[in-house]
Amino acid sequence: MTETLITYTLREQAAWLTLNRPMRHNALSIPLLTDLVQLLQQAQADPEARAVVITGAGNKAFCAGADIDSFYNESQASVDEHAFREKLLALFELLMQLGKPTLARVNGYALGGGFGLAMACDLVIASEHAVFGTPEIQIGLFPMMIMPALFRNTPRKKLLEMMFTGDKVGAPEAEKLGMINYAVPNDALDAKVAELLNKITAKSSKTLELGREAFYTMSEMDIHQALPYLKEMLSKNLHTRDAREGLQAFLEKRPPLWQDA
Question: Is the domain covering 6-201 a CATH 3.40.630.30 domain?
Answer without folding.
Answer: no
